[in-house]
Specification:
There is one protein chain. This protein is an all-alpha fold and 96 residues long. 65% of the residues lie in helices and 0% in strands. The protein contains five helices and no strands. Helix 3 (42-48) packs antiparallel against helix 4 (54-84).
């Protein structure tokens, strides 16, 4: 979950993305921040920190990871809410 990243994890993601997408001219110092700060930037401010086109690629990837993380969290919530909604009259003996 990008919201929970440390500064080091933000740098690791940035380094990975630069290599994965063959990006150039990214100033790592611009992105020395926590994941929460990174996600709170919003698209406009984020794009100001990176070169043209490069920023768009990085933002799209970050946005997708945030979305995936939120969907995973929602799925886990739904699964756990189903488990806790088992009627109280069901006991362990009837589940085996």
């Amino acid at each position: 979950d990008p919201w929970l990243w440390t500064e080091q994890q933000v740098c690791q993601w940035l380094s990975w993305a630069i290599n994965e997408f063959s990006l150039a001219n990214v100033n790592f110092h611009q992105f020395l921040m926590s994941g929460q700060d990174l996600c709170n930037l919003g698209k406009e401010r984020f794009l100001e920190l990176a070169p043209d086109y490069v920023g768009d690629i990085l933002w799209e990837h970050l946005e997708q990871m945030i979305k995936d993380s939120q969907e995973k969290t929602q799925d886990q919530y739904v699964e756990s809410s189903h488990l806790t909604s088992v009627p109280h009259w069901v006991n362990n003996n009837t589940l085996s």
